[in-house]
Specification:
Chain lengths: 461, 228
């Protein structure tokens, strides 16, 4: 019987197997050669997201947090305290990344969680200094910034993983590899739909204590007009892509990854329904058109920062035979089998790899690919007559397992395993760029109220 | 072990057998069985309830099996395993504890509570703060707010176990049953405070059984200590 340690070792290696938009995983570094395999890490940015990443990295053995960098002294103290509590070592702290890179020797990697408009400069500097980089998504606030990151990665020969953490999530990888591609439970995917709806209360300005205000000359030096802008950079057009990149980038990446394609056009609309004083739209809806190997797919995405309606955040892939609604939140994940599968087109060419759909679902449950949910309850229809056009309720199924660690941890594990030469990146900068590039055109489409048909140049480095 | 004289039982129709065999199991076999059954029931009820205070669950993640083999994606299924350990101890269930903690009658009278705290502090302990190395661990738990509830929380499990075993082995059976009755009264009082009428009725049945066991105590046999 396989024990848990063997299992984790094997699955970590498996997780390194590549995919491009469906098969990323291009690069891995040579082994560090360190006898202990210890990796010296610099933490660049220790705000809210930096702390989320640190909580995941705490669980990864072999990491030594050598130095921390943040322009806010308050965050630096938190970072130093976190590191000291973890490894009984006080890391050197820096306000400026140039000072850190000049003074710290022996660094293997940098983990960057700074505001979006600093991602590209920070990543490029670290790559040029010979460090491997894990950088939070969105790659940059501008598409040219993202392009610079890809070029710097390829020029330096170092690794650059972008923080689309779902790409390393076992639930997502299992769903794509085993359910969508392997057993084709959706049949032909014809539509996709995703949302991140967040209540007004969760979208408020981030407040700060006056006594902790950063000096104005430091704020100005690092591109912030004032402390409010520093705390709320996500709402400003020069510093961030707004909600569509903050939240949407994760899920639009899943469209591209799962469909194995990039969209050919986007048509978006947005506005300021509630937060009328913000530069960025508070609600955005975007429609992407894809030509996939299976056929046309339309993908609708909405990010609403003014209501949590519809169950928060998830991505749904709708097919002729079934639908997979997946989310980082397992409670929102559901799988449905169409009550009446699509009749087979007698003229369609025979696919030798096609699964026999009529028997596959029960069989998949027996084999462990799916869990089964309770049968749907059909409410009696008033008058006893059912409209013949109404579809029968679909049968519900579930994913057979969970992710047993923080959601960012597998992606960070994949990064550090790649730095050690033991795996390949699941989302290197080039593949992240292919996935993120269309997102840079959502706001322009919404502002111009015009669809944008992508040219190859727009989506290439 | 105390043993019964069986001499008189050889001729239960003898003139003096009534006095001689009051406690003879064979003379009052029905009463003897009744006492024994009640004794075992109450003991098992108390012991297992006490043991359950030491129950916790330990999560275990097992790989999801596909076609009988662990999946290669790292997908795991969580299973919770029940486990008994001192570290899991919880006298009063967490949900009830929170309810009781807000009850004003759960507080000791001020002077008594202050006195206990002063003794504790003089021993190097801190109240609701960091535990000092030289502060006794038991006291540390004892003295956190609310003091009386914490004391009760700490005592309840061991008390059920001790009384369960003393009743089972017949050690001072009557006194043990009396103390068990008091314990059930204390539980009843708590449930009255938070208005759990179902639980009160449930404990009322326990009280009836304890009283019946006391009334049948004279027919008790196989006791390690018959006195008290």
């Amino acid at each position: 019987m396989i024990n848990r340690r063997d299992f984790l070792a094997k699955t970590a290696a498996g997780a390194g197997a590549g995919l491009v938009l469906g098969t990323p995983g291009l690069l891995s570094a040579a082994s560090t050669g360190s006898p202990s395999n210890k990796l010296n890490v610099a933490l660049i940015g220790h705000g809210k997201q930096g702390q989320v990443l640190f909580e995941s990295m705490k669980n990864i053995p072999g990491l030594h947090f050598q130095a921390v960098c943040d322009i806010w002294e308050y965050n630096r103290k938190i970072a130093v305290g976190h590191v000291r509590a973890l490894q009984k070592h006080t890391p050197k702290d820096y306000e400026n990344i140039e000072d850190l890179l000049a003074n710290e020797k022996g660094l293997d990697a940098a983990v960057i969680a700074t505001p979006d408009f600093w991602h590209s400069p920070h990543t490029v500097k670290c790559l040029e200094a010979g460090l491997n980089v894990y950088c939070e998504k969105m790659m940059s606030n501008t598409i040219d910034g993202a392009r610079a990151m890809v070029k710097a990665m390829e020029k330096s020969g170092k690794l650059c993983q972008i923080g689309h953490q779902r790409r390393s999530n076992p639930r997502y990888r299992f769903t794509l590899d085993q359910l969508i591609n392997g057993n084709k439970i959706c049949g032909q995917i014809v539509n996709a739909n995703a949302q991140w709806n967040r209540a007004v209360k969760s979208s408020q300005n981030i407040a700060y204590a006056e006594k902790l205000t950063i000096k104005q000359d430091i704020l100005t030096k690092y591109g912030f007009k004032d402390m409010h802008q520093f705390m709320n950079w996500r709402f400003f057009r020069d510093l961030s892509g707004g909600a569509i990149s903050d939240l949407g980038a994760h899920q639009i990446d899943i469209f591209n990854w799962f469909l194995g394609a990039v969209p050919k056009s986007v048509y978006a609309t947005g506005g300021n329904s509630y937060f009328t004083q913000r530069e960025h739209f508070d609600n955005v809806m975007a429609l992407f058109d894809y030509d996939t190997p299976q056929g046309q797919v339309r993908a609708f995405y909405q990010v609403l920062t003014t209501t949590s309606s519809g169950g928060g955040y998830w991505e749904s892939f709708m097919g002729t035979e079934g639908t997979i609604k997946i989310s980082e939140n397992s409670a929102t994940t559901e799988i449905f089998k169409e009550a009446s599968p699509a009749p087979k087109d007698p003229n369609a060419p025979k696919d030798p790899n096609e699964k026999a759909s009529s028997l596959s679902w029960d069989n998949l449950v027996q084999r462990g690919f799916l869990g089964r949910k309770a049968a749907p309850v059909v409410a009696p229809v008033a008058g006893g007559v059912t409209d013949s056009r109404v579809s029968a309720p679909p049968e519900g199924f579930s994913l057979p397992g969970e992710l047993n660690k923080p959601p960012h941890q597998p992606h960070l594990e994949n990064f550090f395993a790649s730095v050690r030469g033991e795996a390949k990146l699941n989302c290197d900068a080039r593949h992240a760029f292919l996935s993120e590039a269309p997102i840079y055109f959502v706001n322009p489409s919404a502002l111009s109220k015009q669809p944008i048909v992508f040219t190859p140049e727009q989506l290439s480095v | 072990m105390t043993t019964e004289s069986t001499e008189c039982c050889k001729s239960t129709d003898s003139a003096d057998s009534t006095e001689c065999c009051k406690s003879c199991p064979l003379t009052h076999l029905g009463y003897f069985y009744a006492a024994l059954l009640l004794r075992i029931w109450l003991a098992v009820r108390a012991i297992q309830t006490g043991l359950e205070k030491y129950v916790g669950t330990v999560g275990s993640d097992q790989p999801v099996m596909i076609d009988g083999k662990p999946n290669v994606h790292g997908l795991t299924a969580a299973t919770n395993i029940k486990e008994y350990a001192l570290s899991h101890y919880h006298g009063v269930p967490e949900g009830l504890f929170k309810k009781f903690a807000t009850e004003p009658l759960m507080r000791l009278p001020g002077p008594i509570e202050d006195g206990l705290k002063n003794i504790y502090k003089s021993m190097g302990g801190k109240i609701n703060g960091e535990k000092l190395a030289d502060a006794p661990a038991a006291w540390e738990k004892f003295m956190q707010e609310p003091v009386m509830l914490n004391m009760y929380n700490l005592v309840l499990g061991p008390a059920l176990l001790v009384l369960g075993f003393t009743i089972l082995f017949g050690i001072a059976s009557r006194t043990s049953l009396f103390l068990l009755g008091l314990l059930y009264i204390s539980l009843t009082w708590g449930l009255i405070l938070i208005k759990q009428d179902d639980g009160i009725s449930w404990l009322g049945i326990h009280m009836i059984l304890v009283v019946m066991a006391l009334m049948l105590a004279k027919y008790n046999s196989f006791c390690l200590l018959k006195k008290w």
